Amino acid sequence: MSENKTRPVEGSPKSFVQGVQHVTRKRDAGTLLKLFEQWTELPSVLWGNGLAGNPGSAIIGFGRYHYRYDSGREGDYFLTGFSPRRQNTAIYIMSGFSAYGEELARLGPHRHSVSCLYVTNLAKNDLGALEAMVCDSVSRMKAKYDWWKR
């Protein structure tokens, strides 16, 4: 069975944020690091593919859960997290967005896929709507899966 490419890696989330080059992404990542620690009450952990010289794929994750599919594939992943990217900041809402129509309507400029929310400037977004989605998603994930803090 293959191992997950995305897994906890050595490194400091704060140092990672300090190394972000894009001014807006760096500011947003610093804000999200503080808010996610407050909202989740979980420590931040750097996740990535473990390949040296590829910090662009790093994700700051909070908490950890274990999943097992009917196919037999299983692994560990973070409960929630974010990643400052070149074009935007990706925010991971692992429970998906089907329950968050009202929050998404209030959020402000964004795009989203199955479990990723993409924002380009956090100052233009409603942080109350984001908090509601992050906190509820973490609660849903904790109820559905075995989980732990690190």
Number of helices: 4
- Total strands: the figure is 10
Under CATH, the topology is which? Aspartate Aminotransferase, domain 1
The largest sheet has its strands arranged as: 1-2-3-6-7-9-8
Offer a few descriptive terms.
single chain; 150 residues; alpha+beta; Aspartate Aminotransferase, domain 1; 7-stranded antiparallel sheet; 3-stranded antiparallel sheet; 4 helices; 10 strands
Description of the molecule:
- The chain is of the alpha+beta class.
- It has four helices and ten strands.
- The strands form two sheets. The protein has a seven-stranded antiparallel beta sheet. Strands 5-4-10 form a three-stranded antiparallel beta sheet, covered by helices on one side.
- The protein starts with 6 loop residues before the first strand and ends with a strand.
Provide a brief overview of the structure.
The protein is an alpha+beta fold. The protein is 33% helix and 26% strand.
Secondary structure blueprint with pairings:
Blueprint: E1 7-8, H1 13-18, H2 23-40, E2 44-48, E3 59-62, E4 64-68, E5 74-77, E6 80-84, E7 89-93, H3 101-107, E8 111-112, E9 116-119, H4 127-144, E10 146-148
Antiparallel strand pairs: 1-2, 2-3, 3-6, 4-5, 4-10, 6-7, 7-9, 8-9
Helix pairs in contact: 2-4, 3-4
